[in-house]
Amino acid sequence: MSKSYIGKSIRRLEDKRFLTGTGKYIDDVKLPGMASMAILRSPHAHAFITKIDMKSARAMEGVIDVFCANDLEDELPEIPLRLAPFTDFQRFLQKPLANKKVRYVGEPVAVVVAEDRYIAEDALELICLEVEPLPAIVTVQDSLKGETLIHDAAGENIGTQYSVSRGDVEAAFKGAFYTRREHFRTNRHGAVPLETRGLIAEVEPTKPLLRLHGATKVNFFNRRHLAEAFNLPESSVELIETDVGGGFGVRGELYPEDYLVPIASYRSGRPVKWIEDRRENLSATNHSRDITCEMEIAATADGNILGMRASVQGDMGAYIRTNGGVVPSKAAQFLPGPYRVPSFACDVQFLITNKTPVGTFRGPGRFEANFCRERMMDLMADDLNIDPAVLRHRNLLTPEELPYRIGELVPGDPDATLDKGDYPSALDRLLTECRYSDWIDKQDPSDGKLRSMGIACFIESSAAGPPESASITVLSTGDIEVRTGASSVGQGTETGLAQICAEYLDIEIERVEVSHGSTTLVKTGGGTFHSRNTVMAGNATRIAAKKVKEKAKELAALRWNCHPTELTYENGEVCKSPDRFTLQELATFAETRGDILSADAIFDNEKKLSYSYGAHAAQIALDITTGLVKVERYWLTEEIGRALNPAMIQGQAVGGVIQGLGGTFLDHFIYDDDGQLLTGSFADYLLPTSSELPEITAIALENFPSELNPMGFKGAGEGGIVAVAAAVGNAIARALKPYNISINELPLTPDRLREALRGAESLK
Amino acid sequence: MKPPKFSYLAPESVKNAIAMKQELGENARYIAGGQSLVPMMNFRVAAPSALIDLNGLTELSKVSLSSDSALNIGALTRTRRLENDPKITGAHPLLAAAARHIAHAQIRNRGTIGGSIAHADPAAELPGIVLACDAEIELQGPRGFRTVHAVDFFESVFTTALEEGELLLNIKFPRWPKDRKWGFQEVSRREGDYALVGIAAWFDLDATSSISACGLSAIGAADTPVRLTKSEAALLGSVPSLPLFEKAAAEVTADIDPFDDVHASAIYRCEVAAALAIRTLTEAWERDT
Amino acid sequence: MSERLKISLNVNNDTHACEIDARMTLADCLREKLDLTGTHLGCEHGVCGACTVLADGVSIRSCLIFAVQAQGMKITTVEGLAKDGELSPLQEAFHDNHALQCGFCTPGMLTTAEALLTENPAPTRREVESAISGNICRCTGYISIVDAIIDAAERRRQGPP
Hints:
heterotrimer; B: alpha+beta; Uridine Diphospho-n-acetylenolpyruvylglucosamine Reductase, domain 2; Enolase-like, domain 1; four-stranded antiparallel sheet; about 25% strand; globular; C: Ubiquitin-like (UB roll); DNA polymerase, domain 1; five-stranded mixed sheet
C-alpha cells in the first residue's frame, strides 16, 4: 500500500527537540575557547565622530580586544544589495562600522571582545565617544528638502526615484465620473522575531577557513559576498545554520555584524560569539513598512475602476541594506492588486533619513499597498453608494481574464503576469463564511460598543529568486537523508520536505531526516524568502526522490541482471515479482560498489511567480469612549494551489493574522525630533499577546493548482498578514461612518481613534 | 543586557538589613521582588553597588487582621497572594481585583506589594489602591519606626517619602465594611501593560442610601497616583445615580495632571479618566455586596 | 559580602554547585553554568516570557532573578518536564495541536502552562489566554497554544494521577 503524506496534517518532526528544550539555537552553541562580543552603538542619530577613547576599556581585566573603524588595516567592505538593487543605491550602502559619521541611533561604532558578555558590556561603558551633533532628519519631508545631507558625497537624500505606468492614466482621469484622492500612511514597524540575531565566527589560523554559525535565509548568497569581503575562495567559507527562532524577513540578511564577528575572530584568534540583545535588536535589525502613499482613483458611476495614480514615498532609514528598494517598489507594484485597473501610474521615491535602515517584513509592500487600496475601495463604495463586496466583485479580474499582464511596474524586474485563478470565487467563499450579508452595517449596541465588519481582497506573489537544490541519500542504515539549500526559520521545512520525500519514495516518514541551509550540505541553494520553500525546495525534493527511485531500479537491475524497465517500485522497494529489494539493501549494495544510493536535484521555476489570492474579513467591536477596538472574529480565504500540510498552513495563516493585528494596532517604532527611538524596549514596542484573541477561520483553497511548478504549490506564508490592516481598517471606518473619520494611518491606537472622534464630535 | 557588578548581601533580620544599608550607604539598594529593579539593572539605568536581599525576611510576609479589623499586609507579600489568598480577597476585594491587573502571572509570583509601593510608578495599580483606601505605610529605618499615610507617601515619579535607609515593613488597610461598594477599571494597550489610566473607587451607604464615605483615586494621570478629592466631595451625602456619577466624573480633570507619552496623550488620559470614573462608580453601585 | 559566590541550586531534582558572580541571572546560570539551554532569553527585561521557569511550582521570569537568590528553591526548567524520555501530556498536546513553529517561545509557554494547570486543572479559554499573556509568540498567533493547553488539561484530568 502506498504511503500518503502530502496533504496530511502530519505532526511536525522538529517538535520533539523544541518541546524538550534540546533545540540548538545560536546562543546554545558553545565552542572551546569562545569569546563574547558586544557592540558600542551610536546614541546619536546624526553626528560627526570627533574622538573614540578606548583606553580604559582595553585595560579592563577580561577584555581581549577593542576596536573601531580606524583600527582596521583593511578598508571595510560595503554591505551589498541583494534585492531591488536600483543603481543609485550604491551611494548609500552601509559599512559595518561607522567611520567619521554616525547616521542612526544603533549604528555600530566600536567592538569589544571579552571573556564573557557581562565583561564585554562593562567595557562598553568605558568607551568614550565624542561627537559633533548634526541636525537629525526624521521625516521624508525634511529628507526631501535636502538642507542637511546624510551622505554628503551623494549630494542628495533621495536614494532613488522612478515612475512606472501602464495604460493612459491621464485620459482615464480626464472625464471620469468619479475620482477621489487620499493620503495613506503605514507606520514604521518590523518583524521582531522572538529570538534575536546571533553569530559565532571561527577561523583557522593555519588554513583559509571562515566558519560562521547562526546563518540562515540566503546562505549561498551571503557566502559569496563574505568570501569576497574576506578575500577567501568560496569553498573556504562555511555558513552553518542552527535552529532559528523566527525570521519573517529580517533574519539572515547580511548585516554589519556578519562582518564584525569574523573580524573579531580574526583579530583575537578565537571563536567569537555575538548575541544581539533586545535593546540592540530594536534599533539594529531592519525596520520595515514605513510608507506614505498619495493615491487617486478614477471610476465610472457604477464603480468600474478606470485608473489609479499614486505617489509612494518610502522612509528607507540611514542606509540602503541588502533588501534594496523592495518595500516601496512592491508597495507600488501591488497597488492595483487583484482588480481590473486599465491604467495605472505611480511615482516612487526612496528617501534617506536618520533612522534604522529598512528591509523586508512578511508581505513587504503588500501589507502597505493593501491597506491603501482596500481603504480606497471602501471609500469609493460609500461615495457611490455601492456595497463594498459588490464593488469589489465588479472590479476583480475574472478567471477568463487570467493570466493577466500587469506590466513592468518595477524597473529591472521582468514583466509580471498574474497566473490563473478565480478571484471572485475566493471572495464569495469568504462572504459565505463570514455571513457578510447578515453583518454589514449591523450594529449591536447592547454593550455600548459599535460593531462592524470590513473586508479586503488581496493577491500575493510567491517563489521568486534563484533555483533551489535538494539531494536525497539512502543510508546503509535504511535512513533517508534529505539535504537542501533552503533554510528553515522555524516554519516546519523539515516536516514539509520529509512529507514529499516519504510520499515519493513510498516509505515511513520517520525514516527521513532533513538537513537544511548550511553551505556544507549541498553545492548551491537559493534560500528562504518570498514564501518559496515549499514551492522551490519541495519540487526539488520531488525531483530528487524520483531520481533516487530510478537509481534504485538501476542498482536492482544490476543485482538481478535485467533491465531497469522490467522493474517496478512500490512500498519503498524495487520489485521483480516475487522478489524485492529494499532501499536499505540497495544502499548497502551500492556501497559495496563504491557508489551511493543518492540523487541531487535542482528546481528552477525560471522566475515565474505563482500568485496566491483571497480575501479577509474582520468583525470588530469598538468602545467609542476609550478608543479600544476588539477584533472579535476574523476570516480569510487563500488560494494556495495545493496544501502540503494543512495544519502547518493553518499555522501560517493564523500566525500571519495575529502578526498583522500587531501591525494594525500596536507595533510602532516611534522617533522623536532628534532621531531618538522612543520605543526601544518591549515595554514600549508592543507586540500582540494572547489576550483578546479573535476567533479565526482560515480557509486554504486548493482549486487552482499552480501551473508553474509540477506539484502545483503556491506560497502560503504571507497571505495571512497582507490584508489585515485593510480589513480591520475598513471595519473600523464602517463602524465610525456616522462620524466621517478618516482611517488612513496606522497604527490604529486608542489615542489616535479618540483624537479623530474628538475632532468629529466637536464638529457636531 | 547584563547587569553591572554589585555585592550581594542576605540579611537575617530587618535590623540587620538596615544596619547593612547604613554601612554601605546610598549606592546600596534593598531588593524585594526585583521585578522593576532588575530590568533597570539589565538596561544599566540602575547600578547599585550592593543589593541587600530582603527575600529571606519571612517576618515581612505576614498577613493578619488586627483587633480593629484593619488588614495588615507585610511588605514582602507577593502580588499573586493578593489575588489568591482568601484572607486578603475576603478582607479587601478591591485590592485583590486591582492586583489581577498587574503585569502577568510570572511577575505577580515574584513582585511584592512593598516593592510596588516603594517603586512608586504613577501608573501602577497598588499605589492607587493604598491611596484610595487611606492605607498607612509602616516604615523602619535607621531612626526607628514610623507610619506614613498613603496621601503623604507618593511625592513624584519613582519618588516617595522613604528616607535613606528606610524600608517598608507593612501596609495597613483600614477596616473594609462587608457591604462597601467598590470598583476598579483601567485602560491599557494590552492585558498586563501599565495602565494608560485607571480609576479605583469605593463608597459606603448610610441608612438613607446616601453616600456616607468614599474614596477615589486615579493612576496614570499625574506624576503620582492621585486622590480625586473633588469627585469625592461631589459624591458625599448624595444618593448614587448615574447623573451623580457624571457630576463626580466631571470633577476628575480638576485633580489630575496627566502627561503625554508614546502610548497616549494627556488629553486622552483626561477624557478616559473621566469616562472610567463613571464606569467604576457604576460598577461599584451595581455590585451585589 | 561578595561579588563572587559559591552557590548550590536544585534544578530538575538535581543539586548543582557552581561558582558565579552575584550579578549572574538565574537564566544565564542555567544556560551557561548548568548547560540547560532550553530556557531561552528573548528580552532580558521581563516582558517576553521565554525565560519562564518554575520556582517551587510557580512561574517566574529567570531573567529577573539572580541565581544566588534561587538557592533553596526547587527550580524546574523545560528539560525537567518530560519524565524518563516520555513527553508529558502537556508536551504531547503541544505536538498534537501544532502549538509551536520556531520553538523559541515553547519552553516558556510550557512552564507557564504547567504552572497554570497545577493551580487550575480546568481553565477556561479566557483563563488560558490570560495566563499566557505574558509570553510572546511571534509565529503561531497563540490560538493553537490555547487549544493545546485546554487539550492538556483534559488529558491530565483523564490520565493517571
